[in-house]
Every structure is written in C-alpha cells, then in structure tokens.
Amino acid sequence: MSASFSAVQFLEGCPQCPHGPMLAKSFNPVRFVCTAFRRKGDCARDAQSYRELLSTQSSLVELQSVEPEKRAYCFDCDHLFVSSNSDKRHASHQVSLGITDQLLRMPSFLLRPMANSHSHSQYFFSLDTLNHLYSIIHQLGIQFVICVGTPRLHEFVQLQRSCRQQSMNSYLLDMDFRLRLFKQWFYNPNQFSRYNMINGFFFTHDDRNRFESFCNGPGQTYENCLVFCDPPFAAPMVFVLENLSKIGSYLLPGNVGNKTSQTETRPFCRTMLVLPHFFDRKLARLNPTFSLLDYKVFKL
C-alpha cells in the first residue's frame, strides 16, 4: 500500500472506494483519491483481484483432505490449490509445490511481497530482525501486540506461542487481501482483521467486531499492550498517527475506539513505528511523545 499525498484531508460525508473513505486532495474543484493507491486504476484492480480470488480458491475441506505434497501455490495468480496432472491452468506459471501446514500458518514466508512502487510497497522483516524485535518487546513486559501492517511479526509471535509456549499474544490488522482469503488456513480468524491504517477503515463489520472482542479479552489492558506499526513509506503520517491512537483507545475502559470524536484528544498506548531515519524530525513535530530508537531493520 503506497500513496503520495500533500495537503490532503478527510471531509465530512466524503465518498468511499473499496478501501474506505477517500481523501480530498484538491479543493477547486474537490477531487477525492483512494487512501491505499495513488492511481485510480490500481484501486479498482485490487478490488477486482480480491473478487476473482474469492471465487477461484480451492475449498478448505479439499486442501485438508490431501497430503502437503499435492498442495500448490501459484505466484502469478495468488491461487492456493490442489495440484493435479489434469489441471493445466498454471502450467506456464511460477508455482510452489509441497505446502506444509506450518507454512500455511506463516503465509508471509510463502507469499511474495507486493512491492510495485506505484501501488503496493510491501516488505517483510528478516528472521534476524524478528528475533531482535521480539526480544525488545519481551523485555518491555508486553503481553499483547497489535500488529498493524506487520504480518510477519504477528506470525513470529504466534510461532513462539505454539512452539515455545510463550505467553505473548498478537492480533494482526492488515490490508493485504491475500491474507483475508486464506485466513482459514493462514491465521486464527479471531486474530486477524482486514484494515486500512490511513483512514481507520475495517473492511467488514465482522473485522471490527473481532478486533473489539480481542481488545476486550481476558488480560488485555492499556498498560500491557503494544501497537506495532510499519506504515507505507509515503503514507500521510498525521492520519496514521490518528488511527494508531484510535486503535489503542479500544483497550481503554468503555472501549471508546469507535466512539471518540475526531477532535477529542486520545492518549497513546505504547506504540512502536518502523520509519526511515530521516522521519525523526517530522514525527517529532506531529507527536513529540515519540522517541527515536536507532535500530537497523532488515526487510526482505
């Protein structure tokens, strides 16, 4: 997800595209743009790709009924399917065979980053970075991590829970439609919602309700949770920060995440952002409560 905006804002009653409320980019006349894609055609193509994939995926029952050696994933079509000699649809495509249960639970190690600079600018953390980040978060005494745009960190936290019986838990908010399509396999559906961090848009009511249920779960408090976000490089940070504050406020008593007015000040729960080093001054102007932690983060 990548967009380049300057002097933009949300207007009351603004129109919506498939990715939520649109931004007003110019005012004479008013021109609205998608928050997720800088080009109008990319917005429509992303929505169309989601609809097409939704109708072509192999069923969960079918995938469960075969051994991993017969499961396949097509990188050209973003299609998870059961391989057979009679199926020629992916004959000339790049396909990965032998999709194990473990790999299905960690899809960022299966899926390729959508890194087209004109639409998506997706990167995944390296394993060394994940170990380092997990160590930092663990030392802070965090028990719950809300991962915003960081699917690989979410997967790593869940891996530590299942393999090493660690108590830290996580919830993923991400816009990648591929994760939504395969959530039956890839993620516990109660720990993932499709979400646009720039306009704070949950793609369905169920997405919002699942996140609210997680925030209201046993043990979750404002003090032991961390919001961890890797925003798109050119995202308008003023909107990202506003929505990170809203995310944190879901953890407050009374669950005010979707009730507080836009003009009302919300406190930040503990939040970590992954940003280029030169964003330091800009971030300090937008929210001086953030401090620079000088780490080198490796992405794939």
From TrEMBL:
Lineage, uppermost ranks: Eukaryota, Metazoa, Spiralia, Lophotrochozoa, Platyhelminthes
Coiled-coil regions, chain positions: none
GO CC terms of this entry: cytoplasm; nucleolus
Compartments where located: Cytoplasm
Main localization category: cytoplasm
Organism this protein belongs to: Paragonimus westermani
Stored InterPro entries: Mlase_EEF1AKMT1/ZCCHC4, ZCCHC4
Listed GO MF terms: rRNA (adenine-N6-)-methyltransferase activity
Protein name, entry field: Zinc finger CCHC domain-containing protein 4
TM ranges: none
Highest taxon above the source species: Eukaryota
Keywords carried by this UniProt record: Cytoplasm, Methyltransferase, Transferase
Keyword Cytoplasm: yes
